[in-house]
Amino acid sequence: MQQGNEDSDYSEDYWIEWFLSIKGNEYFCEIDTEFILDKFNLTGLNTEVVHLQMAIDIITDNFTHTGPELSEKDREKLEHSASHLYGLIHARYIVTSRGLQRMMEKYKNGDFGYCPRVHCEKAPLLPIGLHDMPHQASVRLYCPMCEDLYVPRSAKHAMIDGAYFGTSFPGMLFQVHTYLVPEKTTERFVPKIFGFKIHEHAKLARWQERKRIEMEKKIQKFEQIKEKKKNSVN
Ligand SMILES: [Zn+2]
């Protein structure tokens, strides 16, 4: 961010553009300013974001500050509020039709990475939250092929709050754009030892054990009969 003059620190930049360009923020899409300015979309966020109005002004490039210059600490606090607000609005935006469209483009582009599972053959992933409330858990990546969750590989991505994507986003995307649902693979990895499937091997071991017990019983019976015969002869 450029240092502006003392009464306007942010207005020379496009805050959203700057935010999206930060390394580690690649999972976020651009939110329309009209969406942010619609008070209805911000319902309940005043308890979650400190200095909500200032944060809104920052991310919509309307922030003007008059009076004594803000301290570095205050600037940091405001910047943090603005980023947190962007994340929380983001979760709401990406389940709207326009937001879904933007995220779908990123998904097709592989912006969220690919499934590390071999049999998923590099299926693109989608970000998902484990909770809708912030500060609970960081973002996870959902693979629509194996329907499992993964931790992002990059430490910067792994630190992002999962609430900035929410729990419903992938479900919503596939409900609206059903053609995106990938064909599931039935292929599974089967562990083997020297070419033999492990469960086959275990089955064989169990069969051998059963046969051994049966054989022991047979011998016992035979011994008893032999003993009886011996007694009757005597
Ligand atoms: Zn997968």
UniProtKB/TrEMBL annotation:
GO terms, molecular function: protein serine/threonine kinase inhibitor activity
SUPFAM superfamilies for this protein: Casein kinase II beta subunit
Oligomer status and interactors: Tetramer of two alpha and two beta subunits.
GO cellular component, one term: UTP-C complex
Primary role: Regulatory subunit of casein kinase II/CK2. As part of the kinase complex regulates the basal catalytic activity of the alpha subunit a constitutively active serine/threonine-protein kinase that phosphorylates a large number of substrates containing acidic residues C-terminal to the phosphorylated serine or threonine.
Protein species of origin: Magnusiomyces paraingens
Domain of life: Eukaryota
Protein name as annotated: Casein kinase II subunit beta
Family: Belongs to the casein kinase 2 subunit beta family.
GO aspect biological process, one term: regulation of transcription by RNA polymerase III
